[in-house]
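Handout, section 4.2: multi-component inputs.
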Amino acid sequence: MNHYVPMPQSFYEQPTLQLAQALLGCLLVKETEEGVASGYIVETEAYMGPADRAAHSFGNRRTKRTEIMFGKAGSVYTYTMHTHILVNVVSSDVGSPEAILIRAVEPFEGTSLMENRRPGRSRKEWTNGPGKLTKALGIQMNDYGHHFTASPLTICEGWEQDSFHISSGPRIGIENTGEARDYPWRYWVEGNSYLSKMRSPTT
DNA sequence: GTCTAGATGGCCT
DNA sequence: GGCCATCTAGACA
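Output:
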């Protein structure tokens, strides 16, 4: 897997909203005993810490779960949602609990592995949602606390930043968070066919 | 210790 | 469009 070039630590130290866009087109790579699976990030959502009602770290809530959000930029924050695992990239300075949720990727390497992990689904449905992509790539709760610059879970150079167009809009699945639901902190690669689908199309 | 809600997905109608 | 699986962190007693 030497052809993968992990993004340097400095990459993660840019402002969160900027990083959320910079992550688009990057390659998310997961190594397991079964092999390597990877996909290009095509959709992200920023969670802005203390001031963001939708963030787990709203009001500077510091618990066992959110602890990693206070840590170093580029750390892995995994979270269990019902029966699914979601994966986030911790951003901002130590002590500033911000993170970016990876909502969708486009399959690249290890497609047969993904197919096995997502039996009976069409290629598009392997990774077009935050819970789906973790399953397809084999991301688990024990990835919590690792860092994206080191295996087994890394973010590497992917597409050229000027080879696609970025769109932004409100986040998804946070209807009960007051004014926070309207913040346009979701970013995606315009026109990509592996984007997650809207949960509640209500304006 | 007990109760509840949730950054979802899949299956049913 | 609606319902439910399944489970953990967080709040409260």
